[in-house]
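pls design
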């Protein structure tokens, strides 16, 4: 079985880099959420920023105010809101590993889902269009061959302008087959697949 491992990361912004200055983390380097929580927690403890009257509250010094984006006038934040605010201020990136094959590099931004929709081509013929397979480390040419054999339909791989991944075009409405292949063989969670509802409705 192939196993999908999705690693979400955040990236440091220059504005509050001093919070991470005493760590080995460099500006713009991707770090996991657990590392961010630890660094923020260590910074709060080292600088004695816990509210003396309410230990659940953190006093915002200039660095933590910058890190959280808190407006002037807000002088404390609860622990959970503090960490959440730091994540909001940071840039997002992701790395996908599928079957032990790690993505070549971290990709900035949030991970878009695999998008499956049905379009029409000449003579009103239906085609299934699948986007973002490469973002999940799926070999599109190999996936296309599996579709050809599975539903006996022709496939085409298209390069789209300004797209992060090529588009796979399959003859006919093959949403049900594509969805089953992604979920059962490639073990892609349903939450990362958009358009499964476009499959043909089963006749009663």
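designed seq:
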């Amino acid at each position: 079985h192939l196993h999908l491992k999705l690693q979400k990361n955040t990236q440091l912004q220059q504005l509050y880099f001093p919070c991470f200055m005493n760590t080995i983390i460099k500006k713009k380097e991707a770090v996991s959420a657990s590392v961010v929580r630890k660094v923020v927690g260590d910074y709060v403890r080292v600088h004695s920023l816990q509210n003396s009257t309410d230990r659940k509250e953190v006093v915002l010094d200039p660095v933590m105010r910058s890190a959280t984006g808190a407006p002037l006038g807000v002088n404390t934040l609860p622990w959970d809101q503090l960490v959440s605010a730091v994540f909001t201020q940071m840039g997002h990136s992701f790395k996908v590993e599928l079957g032990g094959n790690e993505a070549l590099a971290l990709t900035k931004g949030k991970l878009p889902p695999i998008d499956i929709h049905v379009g029409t081509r000449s003579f009103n013929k239906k085609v299934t269009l699948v986007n973002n397979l490469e973002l999940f480390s799926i070999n599109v040419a190999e996936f296309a061959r599996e579709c050809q054999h599975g539903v006996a339909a022709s496939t085409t791989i298209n390069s789209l302008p300004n797209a992060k991944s090529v588009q796979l075009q399959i003859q006919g409405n093959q949403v049900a087959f594509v969805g089953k292949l992604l979920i059962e063989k490639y073990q892609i969670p349903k939450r990362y697949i958009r358009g499964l509802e476009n499959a043909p409705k089963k006749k009663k």
